[in-house]
From TrEMBL:
It holds the Pfam family Hexapep. The keyword Transferase applies. One of its GO terms (molecular function) is transferase activity. This is Transferase hexapeptide (Six repeat-containing protein). InterPro entries: Hexapep (IPR001451), Hexapep_transf_CS (IPR018357), Trans_hexapeptide_repeat (IPR050179), Trimer_LpxA-like_sf (IPR011004). The keyword Transmembrane does not apply. Transmembrane segments: none annotated.
Length: 246
């Protein structure tokens, strides 16, 4: 047997399924979906028409935190849902309980945890980690090896450069007090964050802000302003020609 498809999975017209792939009970594959070799599609996952899933991806898996983890798994997580025309890369892992829009690219070795909400035409680059309870607006781009921590919100048309790190816990895992304050950054519409920058817990990056490479942002920024340094400080206004829609 070169593949296994549960009898209660629903497979649309024109679907192509590679070798040694497993499709579990209740999964729904829309028309013209392409599934590579050694892919696992977990129970109840919904995959939109025209989506491509590359070799050895894992789609719709349940979260399984460590025994010492503080993450509580919701036993009523909804199925993973992928919109039409998505591309899921090799070895990508997508968890149950998230909703991903149309024409989204999740590149090789990236993962998206549970209870994330991702808009249309989002790019999630190679090796990007998107933790649980993250919101990502449409047309946002997240480049290679960025880390998007839990409880982060990225609005529409945000740019996150390679190696950016977001954080959500000023207590770094100690004291019960931290649970009242865990919060990731909010990056507003059209803002850009340069390579290797670090956004500290709860900061708000205002619309059209430009965060220079290597900056450490510990306070909220002002709109359409360039920030650089450790800690980040305002330098000048963003040039008019770089503004969204100019």
């Amino acid at each position: 047997m070169d593949r296994w498809i549960h009898p209660k999975a629903r497979i649309g017209d024109g679907v192509k399924i590679g070798l040694f792939t497993v499709i579990e009970e209740g999964a729904v594959l829309g028309d013209n979906v392409t599934v590579g070799n050694h892919v696992t599609i977990h129970a109840d996952t919904i995959i939109g028409a025209g989506t491509t899933i590359a070799d050895q991806a894992v789609v719709g898996r349940w979260p399984r935190p460590a025994q010492t983890s503080t993450v509580q798994v919701d036993t009523a997580l909804s199925p993973l849902s992928l919109g039409e025309g998505c591309t899921i890369g090799t070895h990508a892992v997508l968890y149950r309980g998230s909703r991903i829009g149309a024409e989204v690219l999740v590149a090789d070795h990236a993962f998206v945890r549970e209870q994330c909400l991702i808009g249309d035409r989002v790019l999630i680059g190679r090796g990007v980690a998107v933790e649980n309870r993250v919101e990502i607006g449409s047309c946002t781009k997240i480049q290679t090896n960025a880390y998007i921590t839990a409880h982060t919100r990225l609005e529409e048309q945000v740019f996150i450069a390679p190696g950016v790190t977001t954080t959500n816990d000023n207590y770094m895992g100690r004291t019960e007090e931290r649970f009242r304050h865990v919060k990731g950054p909010t990056v507003k519409r059209g803002a850009r964050v340069g390579g290797g920058a670090i956004l500290l817990p709860g900061v708000v990056i205002a619309e059209e802000s430009f965060i220079a490479a290597g900056a450490v942002v510990h306070r909220d920024t002002e709109a359409a302003t360039v920030y650089a340094g450790v800690p980040a400080k305002p330098l000048r206004r963003v040039p008019e020609g770089e503004m969204r829609g100019s």
